[in-house]
Write a structure and sequence with these properties.
By secondary structure, this protein is α+β, with helices and mostly antiparallel strands. It has twelve helices and five strands. It folds into three domains: 2-193, no CATH class; 231-293; 305-441, Histidine kinase-like ATPase, C-terminal domain (Heat Shock Protein 90). Helix 4 (90-118) packs parallel to helix 7 (165-185) and helix 7 packs antiparallel against helix 8.
Protein backbone atom coordinates (compact mmCIF):
# COMPACT_ATOMS: atom_id res chain seq x y z
CA UNK A 1 0.00 0.00 0.00
CA UNK A 2 2.84 2.39 0.88
CA UNK A 3 4.55 1.66 -2.43
CA UNK A 4 1.28 2.22 -4.31
CA UNK A 5 0.75 5.60 -2.64
CA UNK A 6 4.35 6.65 -3.25
CA UNK A 7 4.27 5.66 -6.92
CA UNK A 8 0.89 7.33 -7.45
CA UNK A 9 2.27 10.54 -5.89
CA UNK A 10 5.39 10.51 -8.07
CA UNK A 11 3.57 9.71 -11.29
CA UNK A 12 0.91 12.37 -10.63
CA UNK A 13 3.73 14.90 -10.23
CA UNK A 14 5.33 13.71 -13.49
CA UNK A 15 2.03 14.13 -15.35
CA UNK A 16 1.64 17.63 -13.86
CA UNK A 17 5.20 18.42 -14.96
CA UNK A 18 4.25 17.40 -18.49
CA UNK A 19 1.17 19.63 -18.36
CA UNK A 20 3.34 22.54 -17.18
CA UNK A 21 5.84 22.09 -20.02
CA UNK A 22 3.00 21.92 -22.56
CA UNK A 23 1.54 25.10 -21.04
CA UNK A 24 4.72 27.19 -21.38
CA UNK A 25 4.62 27.68 -25.20
CA UNK A 26 1.11 29.17 -24.95
CA UNK A 27 1.67 31.18 -21.76
CA UNK A 28 2.18 34.60 -23.36
CA UNK A 29 -0.87 34.19 -25.62
CA UNK A 30 -3.31 33.36 -22.83
CA UNK A 31 -5.38 35.83 -20.89
CA UNK A 32 -5.29 35.74 -17.11
CA UNK A 33 -8.76 34.20 -17.15
CA UNK A 34 -7.60 31.39 -19.46
CA UNK A 35 -4.52 30.70 -17.35
CA UNK A 36 -6.56 30.55 -14.19
CA UNK A 37 -9.12 28.27 -15.79
CA UNK A 38 -6.49 25.86 -17.14
CA UNK A 39 -4.63 25.53 -13.86
CA UNK A 40 -7.87 25.16 -11.95
CA UNK A 41 -8.68 22.13 -14.10
CA UNK A 42 -5.16 20.70 -13.62
CA UNK A 43 -5.07 21.21 -9.85
CA UNK A 44 -8.57 19.76 -9.41
CA UNK A 45 -7.64 16.72 -11.49
CA UNK A 46 -4.42 15.98 -9.59
CA UNK A 47 -6.13 14.41 -6.52
CA UNK A 48 -8.48 12.52 -8.87
CA UNK A 49 -5.51 11.17 -10.87
CA UNK A 50 -3.74 10.26 -7.62
CA UNK A 51 -6.76 8.34 -6.37
CA UNK A 52 -7.16 6.46 -9.67
CA UNK A 53 -3.45 5.53 -9.69
CA UNK A 54 -3.56 4.30 -6.08
CA UNK A 55 -6.63 2.17 -6.82
CA UNK A 56 -5.01 0.79 -9.99
CA UNK A 57 -1.74 -0.10 -8.23
CA UNK A 58 -3.59 -1.70 -5.31
CA UNK A 59 -5.68 -3.78 -7.72
CA UNK A 60 -3.05 -4.74 -10.35
CA UNK A 61 0.09 -4.36 -8.29
CA UNK A 62 3.14 -2.17 -8.74
CA UNK A 63 5.33 -3.55 -11.51
CA UNK A 64 6.93 -2.45 -14.77
CA UNK A 65 3.75 -3.12 -16.76
CA UNK A 66 1.42 -1.05 -14.55
CA UNK A 67 4.10 1.65 -14.20
CA UNK A 68 4.25 2.04 -18.00
CA UNK A 69 0.47 1.97 -18.36
CA UNK A 70 0.12 4.98 -16.08
CA UNK A 71 2.78 6.80 -18.10
CA UNK A 72 1.12 5.96 -21.42
CA UNK A 73 -2.42 6.96 -20.45
CA UNK A 74 -2.17 9.29 -17.45
CA UNK A 75 -1.23 12.36 -19.52
CA UNK A 76 -4.39 12.27 -21.66
CA UNK A 77 -6.76 14.11 -19.22
CA UNK A 78 -4.16 16.85 -18.64
CA UNK A 79 -3.71 17.25 -22.40
CA UNK A 80 -7.49 17.37 -22.85
CA UNK A 81 -7.73 20.33 -20.48
CA UNK A 82 -5.29 22.25 -22.70
CA UNK A 83 -7.42 21.48 -25.75
CA UNK A 84 -10.55 22.71 -23.95
CA UNK A 85 -9.04 26.00 -22.74
CA UNK A 86 -6.66 26.79 -25.62
CA UNK A 87 -8.94 26.31 -28.59
CA UNK A 88 -8.34 26.26 -32.35
CA UNK A 89 -4.67 25.39 -31.89
CA UNK A 90 -4.69 21.73 -32.93
CA UNK A 91 -1.42 21.81 -34.88
CA UNK A 92 0.44 23.60 -32.12
CA UNK A 93 -0.95 21.32 -29.41
CA UNK A 94 0.20 18.28 -31.37
CA UNK A 95 3.66 19.72 -31.96
CA UNK A 96 4.10 20.73 -28.31
CA UNK A 97 2.92 17.30 -27.10
CA UNK A 98 5.49 15.62 -29.35
CA UNK A 99 8.32 17.86 -28.14
CA UNK A 100 7.31 17.24 -24.52
CA UNK A 101 7.32 13.49 -25.22
CA UNK A 102 10.87 13.75 -26.59
CA UNK A 103 11.91 15.66 -23.46
CA UNK A 104 10.20 13.02 -21.31
CA UNK A 105 12.26 10.31 -23.02
CA UNK A 106 15.45 12.31 -22.49
CA UNK A 107 14.84 12.68 -18.73
CA UNK A 108 13.84 9.02 -18.43
CA UNK A 109 16.99 7.94 -20.28
CA UNK A 110 19.16 10.18 -18.09
CA UNK A 111 17.48 8.77 -14.97
CA UNK A 112 17.98 5.16 -16.05
CA UNK A 113 21.59 5.79 -17.03
CA UNK A 114 22.33 7.40 -13.67
CA UNK A 115 20.76 4.48 -11.79
CA UNK A 116 22.84 1.88 -13.63
CA UNK A 117 25.99 3.97 -13.34
CA UNK A 118 26.14 5.06 -9.70
CA UNK A 119 23.44 3.10 -7.84
CA UNK A 120 23.95 -0.36 -6.29
CA UNK A 121 22.69 -3.26 -8.44
CA UNK A 122 19.80 -3.76 -6.00
CA UNK A 123 18.19 -0.52 -7.31
CA UNK A 124 18.76 -1.27 -10.97
CA UNK A 125 16.28 -4.07 -11.52
CA UNK A 126 12.63 -4.91 -10.96
CA UNK A 127 10.23 -3.02 -8.76
CA UNK A 128 13.05 -1.52 -6.69
CA UNK A 129 14.02 0.65 -9.63
CA UNK A 130 10.60 2.26 -10.19
CA UNK A 131 10.49 4.72 -7.25
CA UNK A 132 14.18 5.58 -7.73
CA UNK A 133 13.72 6.35 -11.44
CA UNK A 134 10.61 8.41 -10.66
CA UNK A 135 12.54 10.41 -8.07
CA UNK A 136 15.47 10.96 -10.46
CA UNK A 137 13.07 12.15 -13.19
CA UNK A 138 11.64 14.81 -10.86
CA UNK A 139 15.18 15.71 -9.74
CA UNK A 140 16.38 16.26 -13.34
CA UNK A 141 13.26 18.29 -14.11
CA UNK A 142 14.00 20.63 -11.19
CA UNK A 143 17.70 20.94 -12.04
CA UNK A 144 16.97 21.71 -15.70
CA UNK A 145 13.95 23.94 -15.00
CA UNK A 146 15.63 27.20 -16.20
CA UNK A 147 16.60 25.49 -19.46
CA UNK A 148 13.15 23.95 -19.87
CA UNK A 149 11.40 27.27 -19.32
CA UNK A 150 13.60 29.01 -21.86
CA UNK A 151 13.28 26.27 -24.49
CA UNK A 152 9.54 25.62 -24.18
CA UNK A 153 8.54 29.28 -23.99
CA UNK A 154 10.20 29.81 -27.39
CA UNK A 155 9.14 26.46 -28.80
CA UNK A 156 6.40 27.51 -31.22
CA UNK A 157 7.64 28.76 -34.60
CA UNK A 158 4.46 30.51 -35.77
CA UNK A 159 5.61 30.73 -39.40
CA UNK A 160 5.69 26.91 -39.60
CA UNK A 161 1.94 26.60 -39.02
CA UNK A 162 0.70 29.04 -41.65
CA UNK A 163 0.00 28.65 -45.34
CA UNK A 164 -0.03 25.05 -46.55
CA UNK A 165 -2.07 22.88 -44.15
CA UNK A 166 -0.40 19.65 -45.23
CA UNK A 167 3.03 21.10 -44.51
CA UNK A 168 1.78 22.46 -41.17
CA UNK A 169 0.37 19.13 -40.00
CA UNK A 170 3.47 17.29 -41.23
CA UNK A 171 5.70 19.55 -39.18
CA UNK A 172 3.39 19.26 -36.16
CA UNK A 173 3.59 15.45 -36.35
CA UNK A 174 7.38 15.38 -36.72
CA UNK A 175 8.42 15.18 -33.03
CA UNK A 176 5.60 12.79 -32.11
CA UNK A 177 6.57 10.56 -35.01
CA UNK A 178 10.21 10.51 -33.92
CA UNK A 179 9.42 9.21 -30.44
CA UNK A 180 6.37 7.07 -31.32
CA UNK A 181 8.35 4.10 -32.62
CA UNK A 182 10.63 3.66 -29.58
CA UNK A 183 7.74 4.26 -27.19
CA UNK A 184 5.71 1.50 -28.85
CA UNK A 185 8.63 -0.94 -28.75
CA UNK A 186 9.09 -0.26 -25.02
CA UNK A 187 5.53 -1.23 -24.05
CA UNK A 188 6.25 -4.88 -23.29
CA UNK A 189 9.98 -4.68 -22.68
CA UNK A 190 11.47 -4.67 -19.16
CA UNK A 191 12.83 -1.52 -17.60
CA UNK A 192 16.39 -2.82 -17.89
CA UNK A 193 18.02 -1.60 -21.11
CA UNK A 194 21.45 -2.15 -22.59
CA UNK A 195 23.92 0.59 -23.34
CA UNK A 196 23.05 0.16 -27.01
CA UNK A 197 19.42 0.99 -26.24
CA UNK A 198 20.36 4.07 -24.27
CA UNK A 199 22.82 5.35 -26.91
CA UNK A 200 20.19 4.82 -29.62
CA UNK A 201 17.68 6.90 -27.66
CA UNK A 202 20.22 9.71 -27.18
CA UNK A 203 20.89 9.69 -30.93
CA UNK A 204 17.15 9.79 -31.58
CA UNK A 205 16.89 12.94 -29.49
CA UNK A 206 19.95 14.43 -31.23
CA UNK A 207 18.49 13.86 -34.69
CA UNK A 208 15.14 15.21 -33.51
CA UNK A 209 16.88 18.39 -32.34
CA UNK A 210 18.77 18.76 -35.64
CA UNK A 211 15.61 18.24 -37.69
CA UNK A 212 13.81 20.81 -35.56
CA UNK A 213 16.60 23.35 -36.04
CA UNK A 214 16.62 22.76 -39.79
CA UNK A 215 12.84 23.15 -39.88
CA UNK A 216 13.17 26.48 -38.08
CA UNK A 217 15.79 27.62 -40.59
CA UNK A 218 13.67 26.51 -43.54
CA UNK A 219 10.62 28.19 -42.01
CA UNK A 220 12.46 31.47 -41.49
CA UNK A 221 13.73 31.36 -45.07
CA UNK A 222 10.23 30.69 -46.35
CA UNK A 223 8.79 33.48 -44.21
CA UNK A 224 11.48 35.88 -45.46
CA UNK A 225 10.71 34.98 -49.08
CA UNK A 226 6.98 35.52 -48.49
CA UNK A 227 7.73 38.83 -46.79
CA UNK A 228 9.87 39.98 -49.73
CA UNK A 229 7.15 38.94 -52.17
CA UNK A 230 4.59 40.83 -50.13
CA UNK A 231 6.83 43.91 -50.04
CA UNK A 232 7.23 43.78 -53.81
CA UNK A 233 3.45 43.51 -54.23
CA UNK A 234 2.91 46.52 -51.99
CA UNK A 235 5.52 48.54 -53.88
CA UNK A 236 3.92 47.58 -57.19
CA UNK A 237 0.54 48.57 -55.79
CA UNK A 238 1.90 51.92 -54.66
CA UNK A 239 3.55 52.53 -58.04
CA UNK A 240 0.29 51.70 -59.83
CA UNK A 241 -1.58 54.10 -57.57
CA UNK A 242 0.91 56.89 -58.25
CA UNK A 243 0.80 56.20 -62.00
CA UNK A 244 -2.99 56.37 -61.94
CA UNK A 245 -2.79 59.62 -59.97
CA UNK A 246 -0.29 61.06 -62.47
CA UNK A 247 -2.60 60.13 -65.32
CA UNK A 248 -5.37 62.05 -63.58
CA UNK A 249 -3.11 65.06 -63.17
CA UNK A 250 -2.03 64.91 -66.80
CA UNK A 251 -5.65 64.63 -67.89
CA UNK A 252 -6.54 67.72 -65.85
CA UNK A 253 -3.55 69.61 -67.23
CA UNK A 254 -4.68 68.84 -70.77
CA UNK A 255 -8.16 70.03 -69.86
CA UNK A 256 -6.71 73.29 -68.51
CA UNK A 257 -4.61 73.88 -71.64
CA UNK A 258 -7.58 73.15 -73.85
CA UNK A 259 -9.79 75.42 -71.77
CA UNK A 260 -7.28 78.27 -71.98
CA UNK A 261 -7.07 77.84 -75.75
CA UNK A 262 -10.84 77.70 -76.09
CA UNK A 263 -11.31 80.65 -73.74
CA UNK A 264 -9.53 82.98 -76.17
CA UNK A 265 -11.90 81.98 -78.97
CA UNK A 266 -14.85 82.12 -76.57
CA UNK A 267 -14.02 85.70 -75.60
CA UNK A 268 -13.74 86.76 -79.24
CA UNK A 269 -17.05 85.09 -80.08
CA UNK A 270 -18.71 86.64 -77.04
CA UNK A 271 -17.52 90.13 -77.98
CA UNK A 272 -18.79 89.64 -81.53
CA UNK A 273 -22.25 88.55 -80.31
CA UNK A 274 -22.52 91.49 -77.94
CA UNK A 275 -21.41 93.98 -80.57
CA UNK A 276 -23.97 92.59 -83.00
CA UNK A 277 -26.73 92.80 -80.42
CA UNK A 278 -27.18 89.00 -80.07
CA UNK A 279 -27.59 89.22 -76.31
CA UNK A 280 -29.66 86.02 -75.89
CA UNK A 281 -27.14 83.93 -77.81
CA UNK A 282 -24.34 85.48 -75.75
CA UNK A 283 -26.14 84.47 -72.54
CA UNK A 284 -26.63 80.90 -73.82
CA UNK A 285 -22.96 80.70 -74.65
CA UNK A 286 -22.03 81.87 -71.12
CA UNK A 287 -24.34 79.26 -69.58
CA UNK A 288 -22.70 76.46 -71.59
CA UNK A 289 -19.29 77.68 -70.53
CA UNK A 290 -20.36 77.66 -66.86
CA UNK A 291 -21.41 74.02 -67.12
CA UNK A 292 -18.02 73.11 -68.56
CA UNK A 293 -16.22 74.96 -65.77
CA UNK A 294 -18.23 73.12 -63.11
CA UNK A 295 -16.78 69.74 -64.08
CA UNK A 296 -15.50 67.97 -60.98
CA UNK A 297 -11.76 68.58 -60.38
CA UNK A 298 -9.38 66.24 -58.58
CA UNK A 299 -10.42 66.18 -54.94
CA UNK A 300 -7.89 67.38 -52.38
CA UNK A 301 -8.50 65.28 -49.27
CA UNK A 302 -5.35 66.34 -47.45
CA UNK A 303 -2.03 68.12 -47.98
CA UNK A 304 0.04 64.93 -48.14
CA UNK A 305 0.56 64.14 -51.86
CA UNK A 306 1.05 60.39 -51.35
CA UNK A 307 -1.96 60.00 -49.03
CA UNK A 308 -4.10 62.16 -51.29
CA UNK A 309 -3.05 60.05 -54.28
CA UNK A 310 -4.09 56.81 -52.55
CA UNK A 311 -7.45 58.24 -51.54
CA UNK A 312 -8.10 59.71 -54.99
CA UNK A 313 -7.29 56.54 -56.92
CA UNK A 314 -9.27 54.11 -54.80
CA UNK A 315 -12.23 56.42 -54.26
CA UNK A 316 -12.34 56.82 -58.04
CA UNK A 317 -12.28 53.00 -58.26
CA UNK A 318 -15.41 52.90 -56.10
CA UNK A 319 -17.05 55.58 -58.23
CA UNK A 320 -16.33 53.60 -61.40
CA UNK A 321 -18.28 50.68 -59.90
CA UNK A 322 -21.07 53.10 -58.92
CA UNK A 323 -20.51 52.40 -55.23
CA UNK A 324 -21.51 55.36 -53.04
CA UNK A 325 -18.50 56.36 -50.95
CA UNK A 326 -18.04 59.10 -48.37
CA UNK A 327 -14.62 60.27 -47.23
CA UNK A 328 -13.87 62.44 -44.21
CA UNK A 329 -10.16 63.19 -43.79
CA UNK A 330 -8.81 65.61 -41.20
CA UNK A 331 -5.06 65.12 -40.78
CA UNK A 332 -3.72 68.52 -41.88
CA UNK A 333 -2.17 69.33 -38.52
CA UNK A 334 1.13 71.31 -38.41
CA UNK A 335 2.37 68.93 -35.69
CA UNK A 336 1.56 65.79 -37.64
CA UNK A 337 4.60 63.63 -38.46
CA UNK A 338 4.82 62.81 -42.17
CA UNK A 339 7.54 60.16 -42.01
CA UNK A 340 4.93 57.39 -42.08
CA UNK A 341 2.85 58.73 -44.98
CA UNK A 342 4.13 56.05 -47.36
CA UNK A 343 2.95 53.29 -45.00
CA UNK A 344 -0.31 55.13 -44.40
CA UNK A 345 -0.98 55.42 -48.13
CA UNK A 346 -0.39 51.67 -48.60
CA UNK A 347 -2.70 50.91 -45.67
CA UNK A 348 -5.46 53.14 -47.09
CA UNK A 349 -5.04 51.63 -50.55
CA UNK A 350 -5.47 48.11 -49.22
CA UNK A 351 -8.37 48.66 -46.83
CA UNK A 352 -10.36 50.78 -49.31
CA UNK A 353 -9.70 48.27 -52.09
CA UNK A 354 -10.91 45.47 -49.78
CA UNK A 355 -14.07 47.47 -49.09
CA UNK A 356 -14.62 47.98 -52.83
CA UNK A 357 -14.14 44.24 -53.54
CA UNK A 358 -16.58 43.33 -50.76
CA UNK A 359 -19.10 45.91 -52.01
CA UNK A 360 -19.05 44.42 -55.52
CA UNK A 361 -20.58 41.25 -54.05
CA UNK A 362 -23.51 43.24 -52.67
CA UNK A 363 -26.72 43.70 -54.69
CA UNK A 364 -27.07 47.08 -56.37
CA UNK A 365 -28.77 49.52 -54.07
CA UNK A 366 -27.16 47.88 -51.04
CA UNK A 367 -23.64 49.14 -51.61
CA UNK A 368 -21.99 51.83 -49.54
CA UNK A 369 -18.53 52.66 -48.20
CA UNK A 370 -17.51 55.15 -45.55
CA UNK A 371 -13.93 56.29 -44.80
CA UNK A 372 -12.89 58.46 -41.87
CA UNK A 373 -9.30 59.39 -41.03
CA UNK A 374 -8.52 61.84 -38.22
CA UNK A 375 -5.36 63.01 -36.47
CA UNK A 376 -5.77 64.93 -33.20
CA UNK A 377 -2.12 65.79 -32.36
CA UNK A 378 -1.79 62.59 -30.30
CA UNK A 379 -3.02 59.70 -32.38
CA UNK A 380 -4.61 58.63 -35.63
CA UNK A 381 -8.08 57.15 -35.83
CA UNK A 382 -9.13 55.31 -38.97
CA UNK A 383 -12.60 53.90 -39.62
CA UNK A 384 -13.50 52.08 -42.84
CA UNK A 385 -16.94 50.55 -43.13
CA UNK A 386 -18.85 48.92 -45.96
CA UNK A 387 -22.14 47.13 -46.41
CA UNK A 388 -21.58 43.37 -46.21
CA UNK A 389 -24.23 40.69 -45.82
CA UNK A 390 -21.91 37.71 -46.45
CA UNK A 391 -20.67 36.14 -43.18
CA UNK A 392 -16.99 36.89 -42.59
CA UNK A 393 -14.62 34.25 -41.24
CA UNK A 394 -12.24 35.63 -38.63
CA UNK A 395 -8.80 34.33 -37.67
CA UNK A 396 -7.32 33.94 -34.20
CA UNK A 397 -6.16 37.59 -34.27
CA UNK A 398 -9.71 38.86 -34.84
CA UNK A 399 -9.10 39.87 -38.47
CA UNK A 400 -10.80 38.41 -41.55
CA UNK A 401 -9.12 35.45 -43.24
CA UNK A 402 -9.05 34.92 -46.99
CA UNK A 403 -11.13 32.02 -48.28
CA UNK A 404 -9.87 32.25 -51.88
CA UNK A 405 -6.35 31.57 -53.07
CA UNK A 406 -4.45 34.73 -54.02
CA UNK A 407 -6.47 36.96 -51.68
CA UNK A 408 -5.56 38.26 -48.24
CA UNK A 409 -2.77 40.69 -49.20
CA UNK A 410 -4.73 43.58 -47.70
CA UNK A 411 -4.95 41.87 -44.31
CA UNK A 412 -1.23 41.03 -44.41
CA UNK A 413 -0.49 44.70 -45.04
CA UNK A 414 -2.79 45.69 -42.19
CA UNK A 415 -1.08 43.24 -39.81
CA UNK A 416 2.37 44.54 -40.78
CA UNK A 417 1.26 48.15 -40.29
CA UNK A 418 -0.29 47.28 -36.94
CA UNK A 419 2.90 45.58 -35.77
CA UNK A 420 5.17 48.39 -36.98
CA UNK A 421 3.15 51.22 -35.40
CA UNK A 422 1.76 49.27 -32.43
CA UNK A 423 -1.78 49.99 -33.60
CA UNK A 424 -4.94 48.76 -31.93
CA UNK A 425 -7.12 47.05 -34.52
CA UNK A 426 -10.77 46.07 -34.19
CA UNK A 427 -12.86 44.41 -36.87
CA UNK A 428 -16.53 43.58 -36.55
CA UNK A 429 -19.52 42.61 -38.64
CA UNK A 430 -22.85 43.75 -37.31
CA UNK A 431 -26.24 44.67 -38.73
CA UNK A 432 -25.11 44.22 -42.33
CA UNK A 433 -21.97 46.33 -41.97
CA UNK A 434 -18.30 45.36 -41.80
CA UNK A 435 -16.25 47.87 -39.80
CA UNK A 436 -12.52 48.32 -39.37
CA UNK A 437 -11.36 50.57 -36.54
CA UNK A 438 -7.68 51.41 -35.99
CA UNK A 439 -5.91 53.63 -33.48
CA UNK A 440 -2.20 54.32 -33.34
CA UNK A 441 0.11 56.95 -31.91
CA UNK A 442 1.32 59.75 -34.12
CA UNK A 443 4.55 60.23 -32.19
Amino acid sequence: MVLAVGMATGLTLIQTIGAYLRYLPFEDKLTMEERTRLWKYILLWMPVAFTIDVAYFCYAGVDVFTYKNVHYFGWIPFFTFSLIVIRNEGMRHLFVAGMQAIWFMLLQTMSGTLILTIMPPFYGTGVNRLPVQTAFYIFFFLVLLPVEQRVFRKLLPSHMFTGNKLAGWSFALLPLGLCAAPLITLIERPLMYTWTDRIARFFLLLWGFLLYQYSLYAGRRSAKIREDEHTNELLAQQINAMEAYMRLLQSREEDVRRARHDLRHFNRLLVTLIQSGEIDRALDLIEVQDRDLLKKPIAAYCQSPIVNAALTVYIQLANQDKIPISCNVNIDNPERPTAGDNDLSILLSNVIENAVIASRKQPEGQREIGVSLVYDSLQYALVVKNRCDTPIRFGSDGLPTATERGHGIGMISLRNFSKKYDAEVFFEQREGWARLLMYWSGN
